[in-house]
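Posting for a labmate who doesn't have an account.
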Amino acid sequence: MPMRKTIQFTNVAKEDVSRIQSWLSDSTISENWFGRYTYGNPAHIGYHPEEALNYTDDQWKAVFKNEDHPMFSVRTVDGIHIGEV
């Protein structure tokens, strides 16, 4: 029987956003993620990672606790951050 792999969704943490920003600084990842904005920066839908790292608590809540646009970090069952949804 094949081994079943499982993931889990968790609340987004600042270190997750920092990791996303780092991933997007790699041109191969950014080109395959959402591409680039016309002005050249890596595209990211929902928030700008470089700005989110400096959000106030209210700004963080507005983006990452928004019931109309839920956002979660994706982790392996071992807790390794592998993406977002």
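Reply:
Got it, the structure tokens are right above this. The helical segments are 14-24, 27-33, 49-52, 57-64.
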